[in-house]
């Protein structure tokens, strides 16, 4: 279709500006705007490209070859290199920010995250959120919203679902944000008793994986409940995080707008804060060659808390504590185990120094410290429980 | 073809160096080297990859799903995700820098830019420039060169053409730069009365676009002449801009070579200046969810001026003023409007604060300020008029 | 394969942590752990993507259109855009870091690097290393290990092989690092008298390359032994290098972990050091439009030394000295020459200023300075000899 348009002529100098119709579009929601039961379909979708999948893995220092080496992925029965669970989580959470959390004061926690199907290059993921609960604490005080978010691919398959709690400001006299479209709420396909779609050939493939390019000491048999694995290297986060925030689709100005950050008061004021999903991804990458290199699927995680913010210049490191090792179910039972790991992030000291300084207190949830008469650990930036399917060693 | 080469042997220690044949290749041109009528074919072509298209959109915070979501692009009749107009402009301008402007003191303005066909992954774009005019102002004073540049794809289709004015130093006694190859000037396929090649199915597609992933309040009907839209978020530019300059192919050391920047005097001295095309792209991205989210084509822009430089650490924000809303021609008339927008960039204050501080003076061209007895606004970094095809809301 | 897993339950608060089983996985090797004759297969492979190939070329300012322009690559008989030699070298060296050099104090030199086949998007490269020699200098003194590394593609074709010398710390009483798997050493397919696999159509293609997008003054005939070419632009390296280290797969914390860097003493302490392979790549990119723009193959390099480290904020520039120009062998003889170049990098002054300041001393190897009674040049950061196949000008 070829169309001729009139040549563009300059207009502005002859069109006097007035301030009669000024508008300031606002996104996110204030506390009163979270209505339990309401469902948001988030703007924009995210087409995963081979480039973004690969770039995410390398930026966040992933060492599991499943996300780096096509030949390895194919030998394990995957259709191509799957996006890492960290990438899938970052993108789906970010797609929701414009509606869910662009007015949010703090992300309080991640719960019950479940990865339900692989995401490959070419897949387009869209996200939706349902408001589960809203707790007010009086006018002008921030309250707590509980939401569930899920991501679906172009074939309407749910690939990830999770719950989070948000601390949200009371709107009070401020102008309302951009309202939702009117009409019926769309269906929200959260699965209460979800199954995971793994590659068909995975169990057979795991019996026949040839001598390989992973370490020989990160198989399921190498881990026992009670083990603590100290991950040696740290990563100094640079201002790269400003751009990475938008790379995964997160629109919150707290992460890239210095003028906004300086307008805040309290813990979040000053320099842009690193988006928590990125912090989690770096911590995981730093741990990956010690602990998740032979992982074939991340089932999910829960009780995830960013206990301190990170900014550009901070160096982050991580530790893993093995909580449970059990056989995988069904046809995976003799080729893989399910391993549950408590995963801890610290900043600006090595993981070894953190363990020496704080001992086993590192593994007590910060929210439980007060009840136990313990001090909070300000070196600690993150805590979560992860559950993974890890290969057994084959003869 | 398998060839055996002799083994490499070290040579240098036995080959004494002399200074008899030293050369310093120079690129760009000085004022006297711009000859009206002359045509340059620029070195190198640029193969657009899906990765670069996607990465550009995400780096510059694009919110129009046409550039992010493959399913959305296909539903609109596009063959794949098209490169954003900002990317096409940045690449074609940059391809010309080595010849056109690597010796240039300042880019004075962009005029009459017209996007004539989509660019997709796999397309290879090459650029050429014709010198239109040269204004000297006496020996040793910089003069003004007017040039036209266009980008053609591998099928010889012009995808973008525009004019710019450059402030160029007088060569005087300095050595001439790398000369052009001898021989006839190539043909320069500038189109005076250009048509735009849009996807064949676009008009029908726009009648049938399903409930979608754009905001519901950024359709053509939501804009009227006189509206001012203040874009809420800013973006702090980091030193990432050094690398981004070369990502789009721009070779001017002003943007990435601190030693060069410190050798300069005046406004451009000190830290590397952000390449203006990148500034425009960020400003546009920040505006996109408020104003261009439902755009299906950018027709072009004119009267574009970078009125202040930006450096790493600066935070940029933008405002849009609607100048004109008219029906699109031909088969697009009932599904889309042509909207002309005056687009303004500011730095180191929010767009809202800039509007409060400067009022409607923000919308007076800086070059006209003196004649009107107005002060220039140093908070303002950019001004341009853009013309876009934006979807009408379908029942 | 669809599997139902039990819902994840929080475990940590009821599983008291103990310090009974703490481990600190360590990688790399200490001097005693290098055993001549031993072969390591390095963990992980690296699947080259079109995106990474393109991104590397643009990040490091490559101007040879072979790595930027698909139409140009195809006209020259290549199957697609080949990865630049710099990228192939960076990736293969990096794949070896976890075993070879993550405990290394310094990389002493590169020798006898030979590029033996193109690497394209979709190729997966794995690397292996053989220990050639180990020189001890007494307990607690660092010694020197000589290793050979090679990269093979998914069809078992060697694409690059090279030798390097490493300065390695004596292990002494420290804990041993992660041991190698037991069992027979794998075969190590180093080729002593290697042939290069070039595209079949290359010789014919070079006779018929149409008017093109390279400069007209960088053909083989434009270079003579004794020429010195001063490359005009520098590149200020930013903290981008932290992330680029892992983009190419290098795991050494010296390059991205500020806490680690600050724990060191001596020349390497303080800010993270730029991984030398990246420095080489930037220097080469800065030279490329003056000297390697019409290169069709890099045969290899030898005697490469990083004579000073670079950190974020440093600006690097380069110079080339032509050492030898000879006809290419076999069917390439009338279409291309083999050109050997001494290639020098400097920091924080222009290449022109370095030549003015140091004259021909710039071209004396730093290791030879003492014997010649010369001072070392601390402005100089890199020296190497490169050997390239460069097109002759066709009528």
Describe the SSE topology:
The structure is a homotrimer of 395-residue chains.
Chain A: E1 2-4, E2 22-23, E3 39-41, E4 46-47, H1 50-59, H2 70-75, H3 85-95, H4 97-100, E5 104-115, E6 124-135, E7 143-152, E8 158-168, E9 195-197, H5 202-207, E10 228-230, E11 235-236, H6 240-247, H7 258-263, H8 276-291, E12 295-306, E13 315-327, E14 336-347, H9 351-358, H10 366-369, E15 380-391
Antiparallel strand pairs in A: 3-6, 4-6, 5-8, 5-12, 6-7, 7-8, 10-13, 11-13, 12-15, 13-14, 14-15
Main sheet of chain A, how many strands, which sense, barrel? 12 strands, antiparallel
- Can you write the helix and strand succession of chain A as a string? EEEEHHHHEEEEEHEEHHHEEEHHE
Total helical elements of chain A = 10
Low-confidence stretches of chain A: none
Provide the residue-averaged pLDDT of chain A: 94
How many β-strand stretches of chain A? 15
């Amino acid at each position: 279709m070829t169309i001729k348009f009139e040549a563009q002529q300059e207009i502005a100098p002859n069109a006097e500006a007035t301030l009669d119709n000024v508008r300031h579009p606002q996104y996110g929601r204030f506390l009163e705007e979270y209505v339990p039961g309401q469902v948001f379909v988030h703007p924009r979708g995210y087409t995963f490209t081979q480039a973004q999948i690969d770039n995410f893995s390398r930026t966040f220092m992933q060492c599991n070859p499943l996300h780096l080496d096509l030949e390895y992925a194919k030998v394990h029965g995957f259709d191509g290199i799957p996006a890492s669970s960290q990438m899938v989580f970052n993108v789906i959470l970010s797609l929701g920010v414009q509606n869910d959390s662009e007015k949010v004061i703090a992300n309080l926690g991640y719960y019950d995250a479940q990865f339900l199907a692989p995401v490959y290059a070419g897949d387009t993921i869209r996200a939706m959120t349902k408001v589960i609960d809203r707790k007010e604490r009086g006018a002008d005080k921030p309250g707590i919203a509980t939401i569930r978010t899920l991501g679906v691919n172009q074939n309407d398959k749910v690939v990830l679902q999770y719950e989070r709690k948000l601390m949200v400001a009371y709107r009070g006299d401020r102008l309302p944000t951009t309202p939702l479209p009117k009409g019926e709420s769309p269906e929200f396909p959260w699965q209460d008793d979800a199954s995971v779609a793994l590659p068909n050939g995975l169990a057979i493939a795991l019996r026949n994986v040839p001598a390989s390019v992973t370490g020989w000491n990160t198989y399921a048999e190498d881990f026992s409940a009670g083990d603590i694995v100290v991950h040696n290297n740290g990563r100094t986060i640079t201002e790269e995080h400003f751009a990475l925030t938008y790379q995964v689709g997160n629109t919150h100005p707290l992460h890239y707008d210095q003028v906004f950050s300086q307008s805040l008061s309290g813990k979040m004021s000053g320099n842009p804060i690193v988006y928590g999903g990125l912090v989690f991804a770096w911590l995981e990458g730093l741990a990956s060659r010690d602990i998740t290199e032979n992982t074939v699927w991340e089932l999910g995680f829960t009780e995830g808390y960013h206990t301190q913010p990170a900014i550009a210049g901070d160096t982050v490191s991580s530790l893993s504590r093995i909580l449970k090792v059990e056989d995988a179910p069904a046809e995976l039972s003799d080729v893989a185990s399910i391993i549950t790991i408590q995963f801890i992030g610290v900043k600006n000291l090595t993981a070894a120094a953190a363990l020496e300084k704080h001992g086993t207190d590192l593994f007590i949830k910060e929210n439980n410290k007060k009840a136990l008469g313990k001090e909070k650990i300000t070196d600690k930036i993150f805590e979560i429980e992860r559950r993974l399917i890890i290969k057994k060693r084959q003869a």
